[in-house]
Amino acid sequence: MSVNVQNMIKVFERPRSLTDAQFSYCPGCHHGLVARIIAHTIDELGIQDRVIVVGSVGCSVTMYEWFRCDGIQAAHGRASAVATGIKRVNPDLIVFTYQGDGDMAAIGTAESIHAANRGENITVVFINNQVYGMTGGQMAPTTLIGQRATSCPDGRNAQLAGYPIRFAEIIAQLDAPVYVSRQALYDHKRIVAASRAIRKAFQYQIEGKGYSLVEMLANCPTNWRMSPVEANGHLLNEVVKAFPLGDLVDRG
Amino acid sequence: MTGNEAMAEAAIRAGCRAYFGYPITPQNEMLECMAARMPAVGGVFVQAESEVAAINMCYGASAAGVRTMTSSSSPGISLKMEGISYLAGADLPCVVINVARGGPGLGNIAPAQGDYFQATKGGGHGDYHMIVLGPATIAEAIELVMLAFDLTDKYRVPVMVLSDGMMGQMMEPVALPEPIDPTSLPAKPWALTGASGRDPNAITSYALDPRDLKRINTQRQTRYRQIEEKEVRYRETETSDATIVIVAYGTVARIARTAVTVARSQGIKVGLVQPITLWPFPYAPLRALSSQVSTILTVEMSAGQMVEDVRLAVADRAETPFYGELGGVVPTPKDILREVKRNVS
To answer: Nearest Cβ partner of B56 from A49, A78, A118?
Structure first.
């Protein structure tokens, strides 16, 4: 059967806010999905020429190369402080940070909490995959009890290493944030819900409402030593028990 | 006005419109002055949760193209070192004022010069330099803060004004320069302003491929060589007939100036070299003097840091004794005169 390409209608394409550069993520990883959701949101909201991407340290370190937007690479943990500096001097810009669990909830705890507490009018996308990905799978502040990582080879022991930090809940108990939500990406329904949360977080910033945090429960098949399908099952069956999904704050 | 207030006011007059800081003695008046003044000029003031956060806010604000400053004192400057390395690695302008105090550790809040190595030789990681300016009076501090903003923008290298608790706290009558309109400053086409009608800009210190990082670092080193060539500043006093020369910067240079006057009145042929740029250091004038004088005496409020640069310049062409006070103790003109007399033959 021959196909007449000229008569075909394009119903799905690469978001215009993404460059042609290839993501450096492993197969089956959720990072790429989140980047795509953000880019799609930027397209829909028509803000590509106002967005500043604040990348962090981790697997997303070269994020500024993937977006057709101005971008900056922040020191480990400091993205929310860097975003504060940018947004304060130029409030017309739409500033988002993209931070992992180590970045956000370990080394950057102070910067992350205080940017939220000041109610900086920024959007924070927080990728919680319960592991330090780029450095090879060490224990993160979000690693589940009993979960093995290279720096807790017998599994996380609460007596030695404490419990997984529910960072969205910490942020949600502050007075300033306008939107705090935890989402996941293990199936289509969840991806649609996560996309809606990201859109709302950007929309609130455009409207000048204040600080938003969207925590994404993501997989890391490589460091979890699982296939992508197994990893998604693990998220659905185990991870969401420790990190309940849904909106925690919506003052929009 | 106090040195701290004068330096804050000078920054605003230099067109600084973003200041991020954290309380620490003896520089608190600068933070407080900025809190009061920035809103009046339409600038940004944020009291950060730490010095680490403050320097990273500077990183963001500078990337967005605004003249940006932070200030602190020695222990706080240590915390800023990570951010300073990133600023240097991303070629971002920023002015950092250190109102230095006694160290190491918590030390005390008295004036000291123990941060010279940290300021001039790195402090943070990687091959980088800050331009380091050492004022000796409040009038000089005003002048050097204004200069710091011009140099940091011109070379895209962070600039440190290295003062101390004495400079920060003392009061002197000053003449303030005319304010610069920030909108009249040269455009920064590299800044993050939104990729509208142009290709996206990226600010980063990251280059995974060693060949890329080598190229970027080599370009930066070329800029450092230009700075060494063009921006060395120092002040020579009474050196033309001197047989002994004192080298001192900052507060100590001010005290040494009095010692020189007293020594001259007693017939001692002593001169003074005050390095104003601590990096780039005035090696060449000291090298030239070293063939003329028998002794070059370095005086610092440290165990001997700048003296290493003096000895690099002088080599074995002259004697290079050192006199230092530690722990926040400030030498008097009499102390310096005693050291001069001990070293004149």
So the answer is: A78
